[in-house]
Design brief:
Shape: globular
Strand order of the largest sheet: 3-2-1-9
Number of domains: 1
Order of helices and strands: HEHEHEHEHEEHEHHEHEHH
Distance between the termini: 38 Å
CATH architecture: Alpha-Beta Barrel
Helix content: 40-55%
Number of strands: 9
């Protein structure tokens, strides 16, 4: 089962402010990506349920994490169906992320005290997800609604913890824009874990990009 309590995962995400997200067919390469993120300071990582046998690969990564990088919080992303959520929870996922909101996934995560981060893009969806216990909301697709959406939602709903996903870039300009709008954390995928860097084995560059993102998040938070 899970290694970290839900409150621990929430606190870690909100403190770090960044969740790198990716999928990789080769488990050994995936380990190097996670290690690069961890070395860069992002100790919460999301592995998405997108490829063939993604669950089996995630299971291998959990076993490796428990032995080699026990401080890393490792969650499963792109989880839409409740049955799939159960599979990932049972093999040790520390949190579940989805591009949509599903009340049955929420109930399963609540049952096992697992953080559920659903994808929402309207105030109504956000409210429904929060009523089902969601502590952090994934604003998706963020590039469609824009940073102003987060600022506008937080006006009447300042308690919401919103994490944009989709279109967030690992640049100072982009990160500053989202954090200043009120984002509690950022979810960055292929713009950060770039396919060319992974293919060419340039994991040090991924580490450097993660380090830069965390510096910019800290600076943006300090200057809000």
């Amino acid at each position: 089962m899970v290694k970290f309590l839900r409150n621990e995962v929430i606190a870690r995400i909100l403190d770090i402010g960044l969740i790198p997200t990716f999928y990789e067919d080769d488990v050994e390469v995936a380990k190097k990506v996670i290690f690069a993120c961890a070395e860069g300071g992002a100790k919460v990582v999301e592995f998405t349920n997108r490829g063939m046998q993604a669950y089996q690969k995630f299971s291998e990564l959990i076993k490796w994490r428990n032995k080699e990088l026990p401080e890393i919080v490792l969650g499963a992303g792109t989880v839409i169906e409740p049955s799939v959520a159960s599979l990932y929870i049972n093999c040790g996922a520390d949190f579940i992320v989805s591009p949509t909101f599903n009340k049955w996934v929420a109930r399963i995560c609540n049952k096992y005290k697992i953080l559920y981060v659903p994808g929402c893009c309207t105030p109504t969806e956000i409210t429904l997800a929060e009523e089902m216990g969601a502590e952090i909301i994934k604003v998706f697709p963020a590039d469609v609604v824009g940073a102003q959406f987060i600022k506008d939602v937080l006006g009447p709903m300042p308690w919401s913890k919103l994490m944009p996903s989709g279109g967030v870039e690992p640049t100072k300009e982009s990160i500053t824009k989202w954090i200043k709008a009120g984002a509690a954390a950022l979810n960055i995928g292929s713009n950060l874990i770039r396919k060319d860097l992974v293919k060419e084995g340039r994991f040090d560059e991924i580490k450097r990009m993660v380090e830069n993102c965390l510096v910019w998040i800290k600076e943006a938070r300090a200057n809000k």
